Amino acid sequence: MAIIQIEHVSKTFQTKDGTIDALKDVSLNIEAGDIYGIIGMSGAGKSTLVRCINHIEVPTSGTVVVQDRELGGLSDKELRKQREHIGMIFQHFNLLMQKSVLDNVCFPLFIQGKSKAEARKKAYELLEIVGLRDRAKAYPSQLSGGQKQRVAIARALASDPQILLCDEATSALDPQTTSSILELLKDINQRFGITIVVITHQMAVVREICNQVAIMKDGQVVEHGRTIDIFNHPKSEVARELLQKDEGNATELKTLKTADRIKNGTRIRIVYTENSAFEPVIANMILTFKEPVNILKAATKNVGGVAKGEMILELPKGSTNVAAMEKYLKERGLELEELSDNVNGGEEHVDGTN
Ligand SMILES: Nc1ncnc2c1ncn2[C@@H]1O[C@H](COP(=O)(O)OP(=O)(O)OP(=O)(O)O)[C@@H](O)[C@H]1O
Fold it and tell me: Which residues form the ABC transporter domain (predicted)?
């Protein structure tokens, strides 16, 4: 049984400018132990959906079942109790600026009725987990963004939640700090079995830590499944768009020789695990078919801890060999996908040539 079941959830906001359908018939199952990504462009409905998971936002229709309890059927008191199992962190940390790091973490423990001594003991343990025990007496203004988010994570863990909701938790952080916070979230998921729901607009965040992902657009889930499957075979236009924006390991992004003879050729995307096994296949294909091939993009990406390579090739349009070249690559175990014309930023090549 999934730990979070979202069944046919819709949410409509009435504003002075009219009605906004923020969620339209969304259904999702999140299993215990998942790190589940919810990704989409701005306004897709991600925050509204995640706020429905703890009923900060009550769906207009549909049901949310968390740990076998239908939230809509709970009294206010029961709902407050249920929310103790659901921690939440935010983009802007939401710390109490007038209180020390220690007191920020103690705060929810006091609300739970813990004594000062108990709360402090637990808060120090939590600060140890997030690597900030030595900053307990500091104030939030004395911390970096990454450190502030660590305090927020410690505070969110204070009620021993089974679920942690992260709403754009790394969006205000630089890439290096983002990686360290994602590592911490992964560690928390593995050590304590906490189910994590990650709201983001960055595919890089999803592929770094999420095992499952739902892609949202205009209030709907347009695609969901294992991260690795969506990375390998994106079906929706928005998934492709988000993948295109995710450059992976930019230092390894290379532009290889382009053959000027190809203009507006057939573009295919190839995903592979072993770079070494891949490049001779391309070279041999070119030798076999004696056709020019543009390599528009080559990058490696870490998908859930596994290094995956992605390459976009352009084959000569109209050539009678295109189908045979695709077959040649497939027979050598490569996964291919033909791309529509606009992918990779219209006609612009990675190196800026047209
Ligand atoms: N309280 C509200 N009142 C009115 N409209 C709202 C409210 N909350 C959200 N919306 C609208 O619902 C839609 C979905 O918003 P939501 O914040 O869930 O999207 P999002 O995908 O999280 O976007 P972003 O990444 O920009 O935060 C938007 O059109 C937004 O303007």
Answer: 4-243
Distance of alpha carbon 153 from alpha carbon 166, whole angstroms = 9
192 lines ligand 1 (CB under 6 A): no
Nearest CA to ligand 1 atom 31: 43
- What are the pLDDT digits (tens) for 164-207? 999 999 998 998 899 999 999 999 999 999 999 999 998 999 98
Weakly modelled stretches of the chain, pLDDT under 70: 247-263, 273-279, 305, 340-354
**Coil vs helix vs strand at 29:** strand
- Residues 163 and 46 reside in one and the same domain: yes
Query: How far, CA to CA in Å, does 168 sit from each of 93, 171, 172?
Result: 10, 5, 8
In a domain, 179, yes or no: yes
CA dist 210 → 24, 54, 122, 169 (Å): 24, 20, 28, 14
Q: Is the CB of 46 under 6 A from ligand 1?
A: yes
Q: Check whether residue 193 and residue 51 sit in a common domain.
A: yes
Is this prediction's ipTM beyond 0.95? yes
Q: Are residues 134 and 206 in the same domain?
A: yes
Residue 348 covered by a domain:
no
Distance, CA 231 to ligand 1 centroid (Å)? Answer: 26
What is the residue range of 191's domain? 4-238
The residue whose CA has the least distance to atom 26 of ligand 1 is 42
Work out how many domains the chain is built from and give that number: 2
